[in-house]
Amino acid sequence: MVCPDNNTENADAAKGVQERLLDAAEAIFAERGFDGTSIRELAAAARCNIAAVNYHFGGKENLYLELWRRYLISMRETRLAAIQMAMERAPAEGALENLLRAFANAFVEPLIDHSRAQRFMKLMAREMLDQHLPADMFVAEVIVPTLNAMRQAFAGICPDLHPSRVRLVVYSIVAQLMHAAHMKGMFDHTNSPEFPKFDLTEAIEHVVRFSAAGIRDYAKGDNE
Asked: Of the candidates 219, 203, 108, which has an alpha carbon nearest to the alpha carbon of residue 168?
Protein backbone atom coordinates (compact mmCIF):
# COMPACT_ATOMS: atom_id res chain seq x y z
CA MET A 1 0.00 0.00 0.00
CA VAL A 2 1.29 3.50 -0.84
CA CYS A 3 1.03 6.07 1.94
CA PRO A 4 0.04 9.71 1.38
CA ASP A 5 2.83 12.13 0.47
CA ASN A 6 1.87 15.18 -1.57
CA ASN A 7 -1.18 13.66 -3.22
CA THR A 8 -4.86 14.32 -2.63
CA GLU A 9 -5.69 11.59 -0.10
CA ASN A 10 -8.03 12.95 2.53
CA ALA A 11 -7.45 13.43 6.25
CA ASP A 12 -9.31 10.25 7.23
CA ALA A 13 -7.00 8.13 5.09
CA ALA A 14 -3.97 9.88 6.57
CA LYS A 15 -5.26 9.22 10.08
CA GLY A 16 -5.64 5.56 9.20
CA VAL A 17 -1.96 5.35 8.33
CA GLN A 18 -0.99 7.08 11.58
CA GLU A 19 -3.06 4.67 13.64
CA ARG A 20 -1.61 1.66 11.82
CA LEU A 21 1.91 2.93 12.47
CA LEU A 22 1.13 3.48 16.16
CA ASP A 23 -0.41 0.02 16.47
CA ALA A 24 2.58 -1.57 14.71
CA ALA A 25 4.99 0.40 16.89
CA GLU A 26 3.20 -0.73 20.05
CA ALA A 27 3.68 -4.40 19.16
CA ILE A 28 7.20 -4.21 17.73
CA PHE A 29 8.75 -1.86 20.27
CA ALA A 30 7.36 -4.08 23.05
CA GLU A 31 9.03 -7.16 21.58
CA ARG A 32 12.30 -5.71 20.30
CA GLY A 33 12.83 -2.45 22.13
CA PHE A 34 13.59 0.92 20.61
CA ASP A 35 17.11 0.18 19.37
CA GLY A 36 16.14 -3.25 18.05
CA THR A 37 13.33 -1.89 15.88
CA SER A 38 13.91 -0.51 12.39
CA ILE A 39 11.80 1.94 10.43
CA ARG A 40 11.57 -0.67 7.67
CA GLU A 41 9.96 -3.16 10.08
CA LEU A 42 7.50 -0.58 11.34
CA ALA A 43 6.46 0.42 7.83
CA ALA A 44 6.06 -3.19 6.71
CA ALA A 45 3.89 -4.03 9.74
CA ALA A 46 1.75 -0.92 9.12
CA ARG A 47 1.40 -1.78 5.40
CA CYS A 48 2.87 1.50 4.16
CA ASN A 49 6.13 2.82 2.78
CA ILE A 50 9.15 3.85 4.81
CA ALA A 51 8.66 7.55 4.04
CA ALA A 52 5.36 7.47 5.96
CA VAL A 53 7.20 7.33 9.29
CA ASN A 54 8.91 10.64 8.57
CA TYR A 55 5.84 12.09 6.86
CA HIS A 56 3.54 11.53 9.83
CA PHE A 57 5.91 11.53 12.81
CA GLY A 58 9.24 12.99 11.75
CA GLY A 59 11.19 9.83 12.53
CA LYS A 60 11.30 6.80 14.76
CA GLU A 61 11.98 8.83 17.91
CA ASN A 62 8.80 10.88 17.54
CA LEU A 63 6.77 7.80 16.66
CA TYR A 64 7.96 6.23 19.92
CA LEU A 65 7.07 9.41 21.79
CA GLU A 66 3.59 9.55 20.26
CA LEU A 67 3.01 5.88 21.07
CA TRP A 68 3.66 6.61 24.72
CA ARG A 69 1.64 9.80 24.63
CA ARG A 70 -1.34 7.82 23.31
CA TYR A 71 -1.03 5.41 26.23
CA LEU A 72 -0.60 8.12 28.83
CA ILE A 73 -3.38 10.41 27.61
CA SER A 74 -5.84 7.52 27.56
CA MET A 75 -4.71 6.48 31.04
CA ARG A 76 -5.02 10.00 32.42
CA GLU A 77 -8.39 10.81 30.88
CA THR A 78 -9.91 7.52 32.02
CA ARG A 79 -8.84 8.15 35.60
CA LEU A 80 -9.86 11.80 35.69
CA ALA A 81 -13.29 11.00 34.22
CA ALA A 82 -13.82 8.27 36.81
CA ILE A 83 -12.88 10.59 39.67
CA GLN A 84 -15.19 13.33 38.40
CA MET A 85 -18.09 10.96 37.90
CA ALA A 86 -17.65 9.50 41.38
CA MET A 87 -17.75 12.98 42.92
CA GLU A 88 -20.85 13.95 40.95
CA ARG A 89 -22.79 10.80 41.75
CA ALA A 90 -21.54 9.72 45.16
CA PRO A 91 -23.94 10.28 48.08
CA ALA A 92 -22.51 11.50 51.36
CA GLU A 93 -22.84 7.99 52.77
CA GLY A 94 -20.13 5.83 51.27
CA ALA A 95 -18.62 8.65 49.20
CA LEU A 96 -15.09 7.58 50.07
CA GLU A 97 -15.72 4.00 48.96
CA ASN A 98 -17.36 5.24 45.75
CA LEU A 99 -14.33 7.39 44.94
CA LEU A 100 -11.86 4.61 45.62
CA ARG A 101 -13.92 2.09 43.66
CA ALA A 102 -14.16 4.40 40.65
CA PHE A 103 -10.42 5.07 40.75
CA ALA A 104 -9.59 1.40 41.18
CA ASN A 105 -11.76 0.28 38.27
CA ALA A 106 -10.30 2.99 36.01
CA PHE A 107 -6.79 1.97 37.02
CA VAL A 108 -7.33 -1.74 36.44
CA GLU A 109 -9.46 -1.45 33.28
CA PRO A 110 -6.49 -1.23 30.87
CA LEU A 111 -5.00 -4.34 32.48
CA ILE A 112 -8.08 -6.44 31.68
CA ASP A 113 -7.08 -6.54 28.01
CA HIS A 114 -4.41 -9.13 28.66
CA SER A 115 -2.55 -8.85 25.36
CA ARG A 116 -2.37 -5.04 25.50
CA ALA A 117 -1.46 -5.10 29.18
CA GLN A 118 1.43 -7.44 28.42
CA ARG A 119 2.68 -5.12 25.69
CA PHE A 120 2.46 -2.12 28.00
CA MET A 121 4.40 -3.91 30.75
CA LYS A 122 7.07 -4.94 28.24
CA LEU A 123 7.29 -1.38 26.95
CA MET A 124 7.55 -0.09 30.50
CA ALA A 125 10.27 -2.59 31.41
CA ARG A 126 12.30 -1.75 28.31
CA GLU A 127 11.92 1.98 28.89
CA MET A 128 13.11 1.63 32.48
CA LEU A 129 16.24 -0.23 31.33
CA ASP A 130 16.96 1.94 28.28
CA GLN A 131 15.34 5.36 28.59
CA HIS A 132 14.23 7.21 25.47
CA LEU A 133 11.38 9.29 26.87
CA PRO A 134 11.68 12.67 28.62
CA ALA A 135 12.38 11.95 32.28
CA ASP A 136 9.29 13.76 33.54
CA MET A 137 6.81 12.64 30.87
CA PHE A 138 4.92 10.05 32.93
CA VAL A 139 4.86 12.34 35.96
CA ALA A 140 3.61 15.35 34.00
CA GLU A 141 1.09 13.51 31.82
CA VAL A 142 -0.47 11.15 34.39
CA ILE A 143 0.71 11.35 37.98
CA VAL A 144 0.42 15.08 38.65
CA PRO A 145 -3.08 15.52 37.08
CA THR A 146 -4.34 12.40 38.88
CA LEU A 147 -2.95 13.47 42.25
CA ASN A 148 -4.43 16.96 41.86
CA ALA A 149 -7.85 15.48 41.10
CA MET A 150 -7.62 13.10 44.05
CA ARG A 151 -6.58 15.94 46.39
CA GLN A 152 -9.67 17.91 45.39
CA ALA A 153 -11.86 14.84 45.83
CA PHE A 154 -10.46 14.01 49.27
CA ALA A 155 -10.85 17.64 50.35
CA GLY A 156 -14.58 17.28 49.79
CA ILE A 157 -15.27 13.80 51.16
CA CYS A 158 -12.52 13.37 53.75
CA PRO A 159 -11.53 16.89 54.87
CA ASP A 160 -9.75 15.59 57.97
CA LEU A 161 -7.10 13.95 55.80
CA HIS A 162 -4.22 16.38 55.42
CA PRO A 163 -3.54 17.24 51.75
CA SER A 164 0.10 16.23 52.18
CA ARG A 165 -1.04 12.66 52.93
CA VAL A 166 -2.97 12.18 49.68
CA ARG A 167 0.10 11.39 47.61
CA LEU A 168 1.13 8.47 49.82
CA VAL A 169 -2.47 7.28 50.13
CA VAL A 170 -2.82 7.13 46.33
CA TYR A 171 0.57 5.41 45.99
CA SER A 172 -0.56 2.81 48.51
CA ILE A 173 -3.78 2.11 46.61
CA VAL A 174 -1.93 1.89 43.30
CA ALA A 175 0.54 -0.58 44.80
CA GLN A 176 -2.32 -2.82 45.98
CA LEU A 177 -3.99 -2.68 42.57
CA MET A 178 -0.76 -3.42 40.71
CA HIS A 179 -0.18 -6.43 42.94
CA ALA A 180 -3.75 -7.65 42.44
CA ALA A 181 -3.40 -7.39 38.66
CA HIS A 182 -0.10 -9.24 38.80
CA MET A 183 -1.58 -12.00 40.96
CA LYS A 184 -4.48 -12.42 38.55
CA GLY A 185 -2.06 -12.88 35.67
CA MET A 186 -0.07 -15.42 37.64
CA PHE A 187 -3.05 -17.43 38.94
CA ASP A 188 -4.77 -17.44 35.57
CA HIS A 189 -1.91 -19.60 34.31
CA THR A 190 -1.95 -21.94 37.31
CA ASN A 191 -3.85 -25.23 37.12
CA SER A 192 -3.31 -26.19 40.74
CA PRO A 193 -6.61 -27.01 42.53
CA GLU A 194 -5.19 -25.34 45.66
CA PHE A 195 -5.49 -21.95 43.98
CA PRO A 196 -9.00 -21.09 42.74
CA LYS A 197 -9.48 -18.70 39.85
CA PHE A 198 -8.45 -15.22 40.92
CA ASP A 199 -11.47 -12.92 41.14
CA LEU A 200 -10.22 -9.43 40.29
CA THR A 201 -13.58 -7.83 41.10
CA GLU A 202 -13.45 -9.31 44.60
CA ALA A 203 -9.85 -8.15 44.99
CA ILE A 204 -10.75 -4.59 43.96
CA GLU A 205 -13.60 -4.51 46.48
CA HIS A 206 -11.20 -5.67 49.17
CA VAL A 207 -8.72 -2.92 48.26
CA VAL A 208 -11.54 -0.35 48.37
CA ARG A 209 -12.89 -1.37 51.77
CA PHE A 210 -9.46 -1.98 53.30
CA SER A 211 -8.13 1.36 52.06
CA ALA A 212 -11.24 3.32 53.08
CA ALA A 213 -10.96 2.01 56.63
CA GLY A 214 -7.27 2.87 56.72
CA ILE A 215 -7.79 6.35 55.31
CA ARG A 216 -10.47 7.19 57.87
CA ASP A 217 -8.23 6.04 60.70
CA TYR A 218 -5.28 7.87 59.17
CA ALA A 219 -7.31 11.06 58.99
CA LYS A 220 -8.28 10.79 62.66
CA GLY A 221 -4.61 10.68 63.56
CA ASP A 222 -4.03 14.01 61.82
CA ASN A 223 -6.50 15.64 64.22
CA GLU A 224 -5.16 14.13 67.43
From this structure: 219
